[in-house]
């Protein structure tokens, strides 16, 4: 019985193997942080990609390549449809300004899904550009 108690006492007081348990916690935390970084980076890339497409379409309307808002909407949606098929572009002519709004569902912007539950409303991109010609 004394032999059994000494083994139990040695097992309870032993600290060998504690690094493995701590490493598992750190590994899970690093995976979570990496996922957040990837999702955030993808969101910033998406902003740049959509913003570039909006400005390209607005500029083409501004210099007269596109004559109507419908042409500009179709162009912008065609630019981003490969990456964001659910995107919806709206182009309005307000005086001598072209105002473009693109709505993209938040779920389309995520890559790993870490930030999936943080937003449920669509992400809205808005840009305006001065017309150099009048329709």
UniProtKB/TrEMBL annotation:
Keywords per UniProt: Membrane, Transmembrane, Transmembrane helix
Transmembrane segments: 23-45
Name under which the protein is recorded: TadE-like protein
């Amino acid at each position: 019985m004394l032999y059994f108690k000494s083994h139990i006492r040695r097992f309870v007081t032993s600290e060998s193997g504690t690094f493995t348990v701590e490493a598992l916690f750190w590994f899970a935390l690093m995976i979570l942080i990496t996922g957040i970084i990837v999702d955030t980076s993808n969101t910033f890339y998406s902003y740049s990609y959509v913003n570039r497409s909006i400005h390209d379409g607005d500029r083409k309307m501004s210099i007269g390549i596109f004559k109507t808002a419908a042409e500009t909407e179709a162009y912008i949606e065609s630019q981003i449809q490969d990456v964001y098929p659910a995107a919806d572009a709206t182009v309005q002519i307000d005086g001598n300004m072209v105002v473009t709004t693109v709505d993209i569902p938040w779920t389309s912007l995520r890559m790993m899904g870490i930030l999936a539950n943080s937003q449920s409303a669509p992400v809205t991109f808005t840009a305006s550009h001065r017309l150099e010609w009048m329709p």
